[in-house]
Structures are given as structure tokens and as C-alpha cells.
Write a structure and sequence with these properties.
Elements lengths: L2 H12 L9 H6 L7 E4 L4 H7 L2 H12 L3 E5 L1 H6 E6 L2 E3 L7 E7 L11 E7 L11 E6 L4 E4 L6 E6 L5 E8 L2 E6 L14
Parallel strand pairs: 1-2, 2-11, 3-5
Antiparallel strand pairs: 3-4, 5-8, 6-7, 6-9, 9-10, 10-11
Amino acid sequence: ANACATAAGEMFQWMGYAVEWISADTVNDEDLREIDVLYFPGGSAGPYQEDISAEGREKIRQIVRSGGCFIGTCAGALFAAEQVIWEGTTDSRPTLGLFPGTVQGPLPEIFADPEHGMCQVNLEPHPITGTEPDSVWILYYNGPFFSPNPGAKVNVVGRYEITNEPAVVAFAYGEGRVFLTGPHPEWEEDDDRDG
């Protein structure tokens, strides 16, 4: 697994969840109905777009539509989009189409690739943010922001302080829920909890 996947696995275990690692072949060929939350980490969206078949993508949509949950961070959020614009170019490779809008980036105003570091995200009132402070510092590593389609029922949960662009979003998809984040909350600053 890549470093983002490892950190996310450690985070979910720290939160008390059982973690099962799956591959594109698992998504394409096996029954996933026993999985409650599908998490797609950062890294690169290309392998998701290229290795998960049309049948696998539909299986993911059906799981979420039927009451499951999809969480995507950075590249995982790009994979969830209806449309991806990266470095000003529209990416025509297949995506899940869960997010009703465009996921685009990166944001060199925060950090220009390959630089990365902590960025401030201002949180919006939402059940997810509950007892969290008004703003948090989260690792930014060449991540996207979210542009919902006009009229789309998308909750902006957090915005990048520097650009005011949506950094974290949540929304319903059928009976299920989707949570997408451009920055990387799975990384824990000044702690080895993330492995």
C-alpha cells in the first residue's frame, strides 16, 4: 500500500474500525456488499481510473446508492467526481460520478508541487464538524478543491483559508453518504499514530 493508504489504515484502526485492504481486482471481481465504508486514499487517481472496470465502478455506485459510504481523499476524491480538471486540462478517463460537479486542482497558492505542508481549513457548521474548532490544520499535498454543479445538494464542510475554495464536502448519494477531502486528514502532525 502507498503511504497515504497506510496512514489512512492506521487512522481508521485508531478510530476503532476494522480495516480490510482490497485491490482493483477485488472491486472488479468480488462481492463487496459486506463492506460498510469504501475508502479511496490519495496518491494518484490514474490507477483507479485505469484499473477499475466499468462493472467495478457501477458496483461501487450501487453500494453507496444502497446505503453504503464512500470516503475519498485527494486522488480518491478526484475518482469520485463527475468531471476532473487537473492543471487546467479536463481528464477524460472514467470516474465514479458520485460528486455532482467538478473536482479540480492543484492549488499552487497553498503549496506548489512537489512542496507540501500544513494548511488551514476553516470548518462550516455541520454535524460532521460538531465539536471541532472553527479551523483546523491539515496536510496539503497537491490536492484538489470542489466545484458543485449549480443547485447540487452538496454540503461544504470546510474551505481552504488561503483560497476560500471548498476543501471538504459531504452529500447524500441515493441512500448512502459520500465524504470527500482535498487535503489529507489521515496524516497526524507531530505523532506517529499514522504509521
